[in-house]
């Protein structure tokens, strides 16, 4: 009787431990999901790590207007470069992150901030893929081409136009020289990271028959690919699959 009672107690104890373990696992899962939801809500970032390849892909979304040194209005959707730059540095330093996926739906914004983000992405040693969704306009173009491979959805758009400055502009030669210097920085970066020539890019910038109140060109989906700016038309499935392939290749090359 004593052995039987002890055996029953052990079984009950084992079941209690199993229940407690399952409870802890559920709590941990709930905490992870809550943390993930908070990161998505606050800075539009999440780590994708539940795939069959066991790769850890960090997703960064660049949406709305790219905010520079001045804060934009509270009603504006913005991407803050002070969030993106430290995160990119952390990704580069991390042994856990295998690749980076950039989702773009931006109207453009601050030139300095946009170029800073683009340069950081371009200098990452991790495989990177970008996907242009609704649009990647203005300074969003350098960011879109800064990755190792780029996609645009069929209805995605890219607006190519000359540099613009807000506020008072002094109409002297030095001001125009400054405009040219900024524009050369942008065109130089874009042409170095995709297949379009500088002369063709500047031609698209100065087009006067496309936009009704300005100069520039709107490229839709496959047109961006035909011009050599984006690598391929595709969606999230294509972008994720390409990134996994790139990560596998890098892992194989390092062995």
List its traits.
255 residues; alpha/beta; 2-enoyl-CoA Hydratase, Chain A, domain 1; 2 domains; seven-stranded mixed beta sheet; two-stranded antiparallel sheet; 9 strands
Explain how this protein is built:
The chain has 8 helices and 9 strands. With 255 residues, it is α/β, with parallel strands linked by helices. It folds into 2 domains: 1-33; 43-159 and 218-254, 2-enoyl-CoA Hydratase, Chain A, domain 1. The strands form 2 sheets. Strands 1, 2, 3, 4, 5, 6 and 9 form a 7-stranded mixed sheet that branches. β1 and β2 form a beta hairpin. α2 runs parallel beside α3.
Brief write-up:
This protein has 255 residues and is of the alpha/beta class. Helices cover 49% and strands 20% of the residues.
The SSE order reads: HEEEHEHEHEEHHEHEH
- Mean pLDDT across all residues, rounded? 82
Helix content: 40-55%
Specify the CATH class of the largest domain.
Alpha Beta
Which class of secondary structure composition applies to the elements?
alpha/beta
How many strands, what sense, and barrel or not for the largest sheet?
Answer: 7 strands, mixed
- β-strand percent reads 15-25%
As for the CATH topology of the largest domain, it is: 2-enoyl-CoA Hydratase, Chain A, domain 1
